[in-house]
């Protein structure tokens, strides 16, 4: 089968950073679905895993953690899907990735593709939808039934992939007042279109900008951009007994003591946790993706596809990585078809 792999961890400008390769077609076992990949999306995690380091793979490693496709075979323990089902999912970071013609995924972390979306628009959703949903509703404890209506959430990095779906979930299901950061006119227009009530610039003084809008503090903060850089501002901006969730790993120590007097919560979200550790509630991601599909088909949520870069091949994938590393992506980058 066709795939895009790497053996050396190189700058994305190097043609060998990602290259086209033929690999054996995998076989489904246990709870596995064998999926014929129709479209993939590219995420910052792809670039972080691929980033230059002194490591060499004995065989080509396949990256990629977002896909939509069709089930072509199932393992003997599968009960949630059948051959022919269109699916979308983000996979597991501990298994070969989705940048291949065929891919294995555990049924418990896959969902039925939204019927109203084509494969490209569906592929833009899984990783970011799982991340935003878990961050907002599982980690911060916001009610998905609107019981926290009127409370405020600051979303740092509103125009990126996770921010784009996070805004919608916070507004449509959480019924929160959403303040999203956006540093350019086009990203500001994007987050407002998705439902943000207010916008501020994360390059500036965040607490001061919030006060200008009339917010002395905010109840919840979702950090989807540079935890180290924004931690001090988040500690100042969060309300007493408020909650902060970040998805971006820190490079240095965080001054967690700054939250003590407020009895404020700081929590991480990592969407691969359930699959990585085989947690008893792994199937929650299957249910979550099915609910996202239902909301999409009901017109309550929309896809976050920003740009379709064409066919799934090494050249286009290197281009996608380079765009992401540039740090000004709006929405999701998708590739479609081999």
Automatic annotation (TrEMBL):
Database matches in SMART domains = PKS_ER (SM00829)
- Where located? Cytoplasm
Q: Which InterPro entries would you find in this protein's record? A: ADH-like_N (IPR013154), ADH_Zn_typ-1 (IPR014182), ER (IPR020843), GroES-like_sf (IPR011032), NAD(P)-bd_dom_sf (IPR036291), Quin_OxRdtase/zeta-crystal_CS (IPR002364), Zinc-ADH_QOR/CCCR (IPR051603)
- Give residue ranges for domain Enoyl reductase (ER): 13-335
Q: Which SUPFAM superfamilies match?
A: GroES-like, NAD(P)-binding Rossmann-fold domains
Domain of life (superkingdom): Bacteria
Sorted UniProt keywords: Cytoplasm, Metal-binding, NADP, Oxidoreductase, RNA-binding, Zinc
- Assembly and interactions? Homotetramer.
Q: Which family does it belong to?
A: Belongs to the zinc-containing alcohol dehydrogenase family. Quinone oxidoreductase subfamily.
| Protein name per UniProt | Zinc-type alcohol dehydrogenase-like protein
